[in-house]
Every structure is written in structure tokens, then in C-alpha cells.
Amino acid sequence: MAADAYSLLRAEILSGELQPSERLVEADLTARLGVSRGAVRTALVRLQQEGLVEHERHRGARVRLVGEREAAEILEARMVLEGLAARHAAARATPEDVAGLRAILADMRERLDAGDLLGVSDRNAILHARLLAMAGHATVDRLVAGLRGQLVRFQYRTILVPGRSDRSFAEHTAIVDAVAAGDADAAEAAMLRHLGHVTQALRESPQRNSASTAAAPNPTAS
């Protein structure tokens, strides 16, 4: 029951269904989710540990609002972790793995040419997830998942920076090329360079979010 409550609430936060700063009232959640109050409390504690929820004295729990400075710091932390993942992915990649990465890139290119920037962003997220899976590094995977979840407020914003989508595609291509060549040093360097540019783009991105962005299912575009 507690695991179900945790999974449901986490999914609602990451999807944007529960908005930053929205209060999480135990009685309301218990009734809506059909679980015990103890299960809701356990779920909220786990979500607080992940940085998705915060507790205010005398006010209870709410979805944590991540500010722009912290978002940039989170991206910097991801940069190091995903650089390590890219290194491991390059060392472990099979021909089938590389073919899968190339297929994602081809899909990304098609969507970019069609002007489907949200679709491009979705494929970016899939590519990063595939690289993490290829790396086979459970600790990096767990840490990145936690950090990514905290960036829900900034979904898709970086892709609105002029010229960013084309640069992002070139950066992802460089990562895949390095992984395909089995060059761990180059793969790590390409990932560091890519997420460094994402961090810079976040700082330059428009200071607004559309309603569709708030409801989108994936973390910050890269």
C-alpha cells in the first residue's frame, strides 16, 4: 500500500499533475488514493528524501519548488554523473546498443526537421535513459533519477533558447559517435560538454512556462 501511494504521488509530481508549491493534505490524499493515512505518510517521507516534497511547520507537506539557481546546480551534478555513465556505456556497448542509439538519433532528426520540438525533447530523454541503461551503473542510475525528478518545473524550457535544438542534436550525435567507437574518454567528454551547454541554456531560457509544459511528462529538455 505504501509503495503504491509513493509510486502514484511520485508520478503525479513528475507529470506536473501536482504542481510546485501545491499542498499535500494527508486526509485528501488518503481518500483520493484509497490507501491508509500511514501509507500516505510513508510515501511523503520518501518523496521528501528525494527532494520532491517538503514539510513546513504547522502547514504540512507540499510539492517542493526548485529555484533556477538550484536547477542549474542539479544539472551540474547530473553532468558529472551522466559523464560517468557515458564512459561506462562506451566500454559496454554492443552493436545492437549502438543501432538502438542511432535509431533514436534518426527519429530525433526527423522530428527536428518537422519542427516538433517537444517530440525532439522526448527523444532526448529516451536517449539519455538508454545510455544510463547501457552503463549498467545502478548507483549512477538511482542518483540521476532523483535529480531529474526535481527539475519538473523546468521541463522543455531549454529547447526554447534560439538555436538550442540544432546544437543539442549535434551534441547528442557526438556522444553516440564516441560510444559507438568504444572511446570512453571521448564519450565522457562529450556528455560533460553537452550537459554543460544545457546548464548554460537553462540560465538563458525564457522565464516562463506554458500550461502544456507544466503538464508534460519528461524532465528538462537537453
Shape: elongated
Oligomer: single chain
Provide the CATH topology of the largest domain: Four Helix Bundle (Hemerythrin (Met), subunit A)
- Count of individual domains: 2
Describe this structure in words.
The protein has two domains: 2-63, Arc Repressor Mutant, subunit A, CATH 1.10.10.10; 68-214, Four Helix Bundle (Hemerythrin (Met), subunit A) (Up-down Bundle), CATH 1.20.120. Mean pLDDT is 87; it is low at 208-219. With 222 residues, it is mainly alpha-helical. Helix 5 (95-113) runs antiparallel to helix 6 (117-135), helix 5 runs antiparallel to helix 8 and helix 8 packs antiparallel against helix 9. It has ten helices and three strands. The protein has a three-stranded antiparallel sheet. The longest helix is centred in the middle third of the chain and has 25 residues, at 68-92.
Secondary-structure blueprint of this entry?
Blueprint lengths: L1 H14 L7 E2 L1 H8 L3 H13 L3 E4 L3 E4 L4 H25 L2 H19 L3 H19 L2 H12 L14 H17 L3 H21 L6 H4 L8
Antiparallel strand pairs: 1-3, 2-3
Which properties best describe this structure?
3-stranded antiparallel beta sheet; 222 residues; Four Helix Bundle (Hemerythrin (Met), subunit A); Arc Repressor Mutant, subunit A; mainly alpha
